[in-house]
Amino acid sequence: MSLLGGIRPPIAALSALLLALAALTAFQLGHVGREPVPPAVLTSQQYFAEDGAIALRASLDESITDIGRTASLFSSGEPVSPDSVLDKLGSVYQKWRGTAVIEIKSGRLEAQRGENLPLTALDLTALDGENGLAPRMVRLENGETRLLTLALLSWPDRPQQLLVASSSLKVPGISLGRSRAIAVLDSSGQVLGSDGIGGSAQEKKQLGKFAKTVAQKAGQHPLQSKEPGSGGFAGVSGSLLGDSKDGHRSVAGYAKLTGSQPGVGTDATALGLTVVSFVGVAEERSAAVDSFFWIAASAALLVLGALAVALLVTTVQRPLLRLFLESRRIGRGDLHRPVTVPKYGEAARIGAALDRLRRQLLGEPAAETGGPRRGRRARIGTRALLGVCGILLLVWSAPLLLTLNRAGASVAVPKTIVEDQRERTDTLADRVRRALNEGHADLTSVASVISDGTTPAELTKLLERTRTQHGRYESLYVLSADGTVLARAGGTPHHPAGKGPSKQSVTLVDSGNRPVITEYAEAPGLPGAAVVGELRIDLLNALLKRPGLGEVRVVDAEHRVIGGNNGYRAFTSLSDAGLDALASSANDKSGADGKGAADEKTDKGPRAKSALLRDGGVAIAAAAPMTGGGVAQPLEWTVVTWQPAKGLEIPAYTTQNRTVLAGLLGLTGAVACLGWIHIIVVRPLRDLARRAEALADGDRRTVVYPTHHDEVGAVTRSLEVIRLQLLEQRKRDAAGGTTGRTPGRATPAGRN
Questions:
Q1: d(Cα 671, Cα 680) in Å, to the nearest integer?
Q2: pTM of the model
Q3: Mean pLDDT, the chain, whole residue set
Q4: What strands, in cross-sheet order, belong to the sheet with 191-195?
Q5: How far apart are the first and last CA of the chain?
Q6: Are 488 and 460 a contacting pair, CB within 8 Å?
Q7: Mean pLDDT of 612-635
Q8: Torsion, Cα of 65, 66, 72, 78 (10° steps)
Q9: Are 391 and 651 contacting, i.e. CB atoms less than 8 angstroms apart?
């Protein structure tokens, strides 16, 4: 017989599956809420560190690009003094701690602004070598670390000069909240810069432990540091559990600087820096559901499974095996004992037909062996028995799938996760604000080198080069005071024809349900004119794509949607009244908390807010206005984020998911095994019952052939043997007949 066919393999598989599921339910699924910190809190810290790494990498790359482009702009024009270079650089960008211009040949310091730079650390003779102008880290006498960015200033017939700018290695624009700390580490784990770390020895000791561990983990390959298919951050990142003290435990996240595209490095990523952030959280080591529930569920499964398996064995397997033995006996010619007929279903019909065939082989006519074939024994079919087994297993699976351990609207969400949603939203708002401010600073830098003597061809070349260096612009053009476009690079301008430059530095217009963000930078050398840049809306949306924040929207002062991290309709309202109220609360200048606000800050004015929205399911929401200053401030935009709490790995939802998983496994196993029995056994058995009754009724012409090589197939082959014996008997009767017997009637063997 087939190893995978017949009645015994599916019943054995069902028994093994139910035993495995009972063990899984009792010993594994119930281990929920016993971790010192919910996994969702650890994941949130990892996301926080990734945000910091992205912000630091973008800031460093932007600074490196700005220095190089500024030096290129100055070098392409008329020679200017070193003081003029630094003054214009400082008026456009306010992000460097110190700047200087050095004459390379003599090594003389020509001009300096801000803090004193460690110029002795520069080898001016190696600038023309490979990576001679690459950024480098140097340590000051006070122990702080600075990043030096270099660029060349070159004019004909003048000594070549080196433009140097220094910046601190601190993560910019990260909202830390009240108790979080963040630090930047080099490849050896040494702390280069930190923020939010107090003077306590405990914090410094904990940071040292984290730094040592992170230095080891940061050396991994990005694909080996995460679970397959996790996606998100392209570099190495993760989370760590720290020391426990007085019911609180330090939790850290770390992320190594990486490019925006996997495998594509930048000047900043070549520095080998890693961002680590950590915060103290309260330990909550308590099971969400008592272990007795899972033990009781396992015991119930064993009882119901035992009943189902016993029913299958006693009403399906044993009768079928008995039919197999009886059919072989009849086929071998042992006709003296009547057939033991099963009690139920198709097996009863087949048993009755076999007994009729036995009597026909003894010589009785088919008409005299007939009788009622669908009596009391045959009313309950094998399909009904399978249905009863399915109901027994469904009694266990259905409550787990639908009702038990449901996390309601009152589910408790860890406070740390709600606060992280607020701080990450605030950080995202700062990223958007900085992107707009950086764009305007770039335009201002371009405008500073334009004069009334600059030809349209030179303007076009300058705009094309700027648009190539910065991919944020969809269109760049120079607009005169009367609204004439003097030069253009990129797409068609959306500025109204015939109108001069806007007095506002940043404007937003609706161009066919498509937001157009336009920035204006006045050109001092060309009275009334301005350099205009129209930002790509895709750039804004790309900034908003951060895992772990859910849905992200940027709304204007009227709460109309401007951008988002996925599909949205521009200039429509927010999808929920609670989100609209939260955005209004975040922009409230009086500082009053909105309904459901989860933060407890007391400072006045607009600030980031977070809340738990419990209408239609629990959701974590946050809103953060862009309040950091710059040209983006008058826009009064707000970043709003929200995500359903059921997607977080917290005890209540983990218990619910595991309960549903147990029910789904039970239902799937029952359907698979019972469906297996129905296809392999029940359907062929019903067909066999029909054929056996037809053969017993006198149909000798239809060949009976097996479908599967199993018990049903064996009974089928025996019926074919009986059919051939009956045909042979008919031929003998037709050839001679038997003397001394009543015509058409046989004398039973063993009788005189």
A1: 14
A2: 0.77
A3: 83
A4: 191-195, 181-185, 274-282, 248-256, 237-245
A5: 42
A6: yes
A7: 87
A8: 180
A9: no
